[in-house]
Amino acid sequence: MRHASVWVCILTFYNLQSSSLAAIVPPPWSDPNKNPCASQPGGWQLLYWPPLKKCFKIFQMGYPCPETMELSPVGVGATAHGSTAECRCPPGTAQYPLTKRCHRLFERGPCDFGQYFAPFADPEVKSAIPRQRWGTCKPTEICETGMIFWPQDNKCYQLHTKGPCPKGKLVSMDNDGIAKCKCEREGELGNYFHDETETCHEFFSKGPCLRSGELFLPSKKCACHQRLPHFHNETNQCYEIGTIGPCPIGHTYIIADKRGQQEVTAMRAECRCKDNYVLWKDGYCYKLYTQGPCESGSFLVASNTCIANPCEKGRLYFPKEKTCYRIGSQGPCSLQQVVIFDFTTRPSLDGISYNGICGCSGVIHNLDQTCSEDEVPKSACDSTPDMVEINRQCYKLYSRGPCGPGQWLEPKKGSVKIRAATCICRPGYTPYEAPLQNGVIGCQPPAVGLARYLNGNRLLSIRIGNFTLTIPKI
């Protein structure tokens, strides 16, 4: 049986759903007229099972239910009719039609090697058990070398990185060929294992380090060295690249783009405004087209420039046209696109964005228009900050996009085309010495090169963006 705290959550849910604020609304199975067990001592933990005319503990696995199912209240959150109990698959599992058993989702379960058990919904498949969850076997997608498919979000992640895992575990592959969050002292993950905390972490991340300004290094120790690009002179500490680090609000700690320099021997990360942010006179960076430091009723359009919001309620501003368009209308968008909110803005951090973009109308409720799967109009890129069009598809700058492992999209220098981009190595990654057997070109993570550097007796050359950083032994 589950912990009593589950009941606190369930009762709280029912209380919130009640239209009456003056009384506590009990769950349906606490009504003795519907659940005869409710009148017994501890009846709030019992459910009546009509076939046997007996009481059983709620969420009991197995008997009187099939082996892999649990006894659950009928329709939690809905009105029960007749019986108050039913057999259902536990949360995180689903029933496989061929075996009638419940299996954990996103694991191999009853599937063949290289497949995973996934949620399945088909109106033609009817269950004898109301609201029963069904599952089906799906093949894992093939990712590029060094990457692995994560079924929960249908994305590929680089092996042995944190990815979607909780702190202390890294993306790895289990014995069934399925991605899993793991941490092991031996094997490949042993290279990332921290003995004191018995957790696994990416190199040059904060990882298990408790002292301020230290990073988890390939030596498997927490330290900071002056010759690392992560070192910050003013604080004499090291910070993760791509985080806020020691920077003010709205900044990112990144490797500076020193144009015209191909060889940099003292490359350092520094504080720069995040993409689509501008520096204000208070030293902070604010997102364009949000209120930022402006007065109420105004928003930011350029560094140190605010304008009064010209848009009526329900309309968004398009900077290129300097005009407002109604949300859900076609506005300046191409066919099959409508005006939607700027999804790149996080209201909890950036404030409300008054910037409008073109997107599929599926984002807007009760609209009949939809986007074609085969066509991504140029306006979908042109109207969205930091987006670039490649092969008729839109990708966000500084994301992997169509690039190889360890690469991301950066604006192409000196290009006459608007928002042209090219695939280069991410900061700290180094190019493969030669294409892989399948012809894939990409970059290896910093742990590979920097581990040799920290443990070897020679200079290390690290490729960061368009530059090569040469560091002597520490």
Structure characterization notes:
This protein is mostly beta strands. 7% of the residues lie in helices and 29% in strands. The strands form 18 sheets. It has a three-stranded mixed beta sheet with strand order 20-37-36.
Features:
globular; mainly beta; disordered N terminus; two-stranded antiparallel ribbon; 37 strands; three-stranded mixed sheet
Largest sheet: 3 strands, mixed
**Strand-residue fraction?**
25-35%
Q: Rough shape?
A: globular
Number of helical segments with 4 or more residues: 4
Radius of gyration: 28 Å
Number of strands: 37
Class by alpha and beta content: mainly beta
Helix content: under 10%
Distance between the termini: 56 Å
Averaged pLDDT: 76
What are the low-pLDDT stretches, counting only 5+ consecutive residues below 50?
Answer: 1-22, 76-81, 123-130, 259-265, 362-370, 372-380, 448-468
Strand order of the largest sheet: 20-37-36
